[in-house]
Design a protein that fits this description.
Number of strands: 24
Distance between the termini: 52 Å
Radius of gyration: 26 Å
Structural class: mainly beta
Shape: elongated
CATH architecture of the largest domain: Sandwich
Order of helices and strands: HEEEEEEEEEEEEEEEEEEEEEEEE
CATH topology of the largest domain: Immunoglobulin-like
Number of helices: 1
CATH class of the largest domain: Mainly Beta
Length: 338
């Protein structure tokens, strides 16, 4: 089968599946709504998605959203009042808000037999919001944004990774009584995971900036959920610092690594022969590493569990010149065996 024709056939089958949708259950009356296939996601905790659900990585108090599309399959206008996902007791996640708005499938490209509509309506504020009732005419579509927040670290030992298995839609016909429809959650199911690394480890925050070809904005922060601001002892008795990731003004993610040949016995002290590297999220392999020249690293404070200091380093290649500087702080992790 020619490739263009095969692509059109796949799109046509996807569109057919979308129109078929997923029906629901309403006690005592027909089910007026169906859920379209697929979903859309936004927020730092999102780790990936697929037909079996959306993978969520744990970020303490992290907020995110999942978007779905509902369609009125009846010949009567339906007013949707709310859409909820009932999370099990002690779940790592809680639904904190719902947003409803009318939605119209985008136009399909020319010369195709059909195309599945995209879900592109998410708003980046994932806060506590209550929906306004939304009327959905016969055959029309409704966009639903479900906002969530992850739990705090202190509840993790008792929490469960179980999540909701259905959508509960509250609706009415005209000014009639409220009714409830249950829909299979499909691709909007949350696949939760417990912290597996330093997510709940108490860590200080470093304050690191860039200036030059790459520049950070004043008051910039670190990327939520980023690991780092940790130190490990090397096998040779030195110290390896790894910062959290942070963005520059152009949206490139950066991380600073500092390697000290030894750990000074007292502080403050300037460390000679320190190796400072800056790694940015761009380049042929996704990351580009610059090696610092004229680096100066100072250790201001050291205890058994934490270290703090300052640094400055110059980085350059044929086209770019920039400086990294700031205060580095870290929590000590178990000895590195590599």
């Amino acid at each position: 089968m020619p490739l263009p024709l095969m692509r059109c056939l796949v799109l046509a089958l996807a569109a057919t599946a979308l129109v078929a949708g997923c029906g629901g259950r309403v006690v005592g009356s027909p089910s007026p709504l169906m859920m379209a296939g697929g979903s859309s996601e936004g927020g730092y905790p999102i780790a990936g998605s697929g037909p079996s659900g959306t993978a969520i990585r744990f970020i303490e108090h992290g907020r995110f959203a999942v978007g779905i599309i509902l369609r009125n399959k009846t010949g009567t206008t339906v007013t949707v009042v709310d859409v909820r996902t009932p999370e099990p007791p002690l779940s790592l996640v809680e639904q904190v808000g719902t947003r409803l708005e009318p939605w119209k499938p985008p136009a399909c490209p020319k010369n195709t037999l059909g195309c599945p509509p995209g879900v592109t309506f998410l708003r980046m504020s994932f806060g506590d919001v209550r929906p306004s009732p939304m009327s959905v005419g016969p055959g029309k579509w409704l966009a639903v944004q479900l906002n969530y927040q992850l739990a705090s670290c202190h509840v993790v030992p008792l929490a469960t990774t179980a999540s909701a298995r259905e959508l509960q839609v509250t609706f009415r016909y005209s000014q009639g009584r409220l009714q409830h429809q249950e829909l299979p959650i499909g691709a909007a199911k949350l696949r939760l995971s417990t912290p597996a690394g330093v997510e709940c480890l108490p860590r200080p925050h470093s304050h690191i900036g860039l200036v030059g070809s790459f520049t950070t904005s004043p008051g910039h922060g670190t990327i939520p959920g980023s690991d780092g601001d940790t130190c490990t002892r090397t096998s040779s008795g030195g110290l390896a610092f790894r910062s959290r990731q942070f963005f520059d003004r152009s949206g490139i993610a950066w991380r600073i690594r500092i390697r000290l040949p030894r750990v000074p016995a007292s502080s403050p002290v300037d460390v000679v022969r320190a190796d400072v590297r800056a790694t940015g999220g761009f380049g042929l392999h996704g990351w580009t590493t610059f090696h610092g020249a004229g680096s100066r690293v100072t250790l201001h404070h050291a205890t058994r569990g934490t270290l703090a200091g300052s640094f400055t380093a110059i980085f350059s290649d044929r086209r770019r010149l920039f400086r990294a500087y700031g205060e580095w702080r870290c929590t000590m992790l178990p000895r590195h065996r590599a």
